[in-house]
Amino acid sequence: MSEPAPIARKSPGQLNDEMLSSLGTPVWRWYALAFVLGAVVAWGLYAFWHMVSTDMSCTGLNRPVMWGIFIVSFVFWVGLSHSGTMVSAILRLSRANWRRPILRAAEAMTVFSITVAGLFPIIHLGRNWVFYYLLPYPNQRGLWPNFRSPLLWDAMAITTYIIGSTLFLYLGMLPDLAIVRDRSSGWRRKLYAALAMGWRGSAREWSVYRKASTLMAALIIPVAVSVHSIVAFDFAVTVVPGWHSTIFPPYFVIGAIDSGVAAVITLMIVVRKAFRLEEYLTPEHFDNMGKLLLVISLLWTYAYFVDVNITWYAHEPIEWEMFSFMANRYT
Q1: 42, 79, 87, 275: which sits with the fewest CB atoms below 10 Å from its CB?
Q2: DSSP code of residue 68
Q3: pLDDT value at 3 more than 50
C-alpha cells in the first residue's frame, strides 16, 4: 500500500473527499452510537417527567437549598459554550493560520453547549409550562417580567448568545455547504443549495466573506463576555457570603474560557481518533492549544487569588466567618 500523500501535495478534490467521507452511508457503529445516545435522552425525559409529576424535592432542591444540580449544570454548559467563540474569534482576529482545522468543531460546540445550557433555567422553574413568562412581551394578563430577577437576565442573555453564535457558525460554513451541495443529489442537493445561499466562490464573495467573518468575530467576543458576566451576576447580586463579590464577572469569564479551551482540546482528541484526521489535527495544534490553556489557567489562578485576597483584606465578619469555616474544614 502506498503512503498517503502529504496535505501540501493533495489536490482540493482529494481534501474534500477525505473531509466529506463521514457523510456517506452510516455503518453499524453509527447506529449503535445513535441507539446509546437515544437511550440517554429517553432516560433524561423520564427523569424530567418524574420531576414534573412529583415535585422539585426529588432533585434535592428544598429550603434552604434552593439551587442545586440545575444551576451547576447551567454554569457548566455556558462555560463550555465559550470554547468556539473565544478560540475561533480571537484566533481569527489574530490571523493565526494554525486555527483552521479546529474552527468548525469549536464553533459547533458553542451552539450545542449554549442550547443545552438554555434548558436548565426552564427546568429549574418547576412550573416549566409557563417558561414564556420570562420573556418581556405584551400579554392579556397584564403581567410584566421582573427585571430584577436573574432568570430574566439569563433568558435574554442566552437568547442573544444563541442567535449570535448560530450566525457566526453559519457564516463560516457557507463555503463548506457549497462544497457539499456540489457533491450531493436529490433532496439533499436542494437542501444544501438553500443553505449555501447561492455561494459560488467568486473573488467578490470571498472578499465579502472575509470582511463579514472579521466583523462577526469582533462583535461576538463582547457578547460572550457579557453573557457570562450576567451568569456571574446570578450569584454576585445575592447576599450569600462568598458570592457577594465584584470579582465574580471577570472570574467567571476567565473560568469559562479556561473550561472552553479544555473542552476544545478534548473534542480534538476524540474527533482526531474517530475520523482518522491525524494528518489534519497535528501535534502542532495540540501544542498551541496547550500553550493557550496554560496562559488562561494562569489568569484564572490570579482571579481565584484576588477573590480570596478580597475576603482576607476586607475582613468582613460574616465573610471572614465563612472563610475560616471552609479553611478549617477543608485543610
Answers
A1: 42
A2: -
A3: no
